[in-house]
Design a protein that fits this description.
This protein is an all-beta fold. It contains no helices and ten strands. The strands form three sheets. The chain has a six-stranded antiparallel β-sheet with strand order 6-3-2-1-7-8, with no helix packed on it. Strand 7 and strand 8 form a beta hairpin. The radius of gyration is 16 Å and the shape is elongated.
């Protein structure tokens, strides 16, 4: 199945402890159905000090389910994503405004 949300998309969180927060997708795992969004679903990870890195408590963005994310359209509103063909190419479009993503 084609990916409705991709790396670099601006999204808003629809459900969970970070509901309403906005961010950019850093990575997507289609097999697991999850995505890592910058600044959303943060957890503290304790790391050991090594020669190259400082140890301590490091905040890290954890994966969030794709069903809890919605794409932001040009007006900054949450929208669903659809597919259509334009000039023989399959493109994503925002269902609320109809413009291509």
């Amino acid at each position: 199945m084609a990916a409705k949300l991709k790396k670099g998309d601006k999204v808003v969180v629809l459900a969970g402890k970070d509901k309403g927060k906005e961010g950019e997708i850093v990575s997507v795992s289609p097999k697991a159905g999850k995505a890592v969004v910058d600044g959303v679903n943060m957890a503290v990870r304790h790391t050991r000090q090594s020669q190259n890195t400082q140890g301590g408590r490091v905040p890290k963005a954890m994966p969030i389910d794709l069903s809890n994310l919605a794409l932001l359209d040009s007006k900054g509103k949450a929208t669903r994503v659809g597919f259509r063909t334009e000039d023989g190419k399959k493109v994503r479009f925002a269902k609320s405004t109809g413009e291509t993503v």
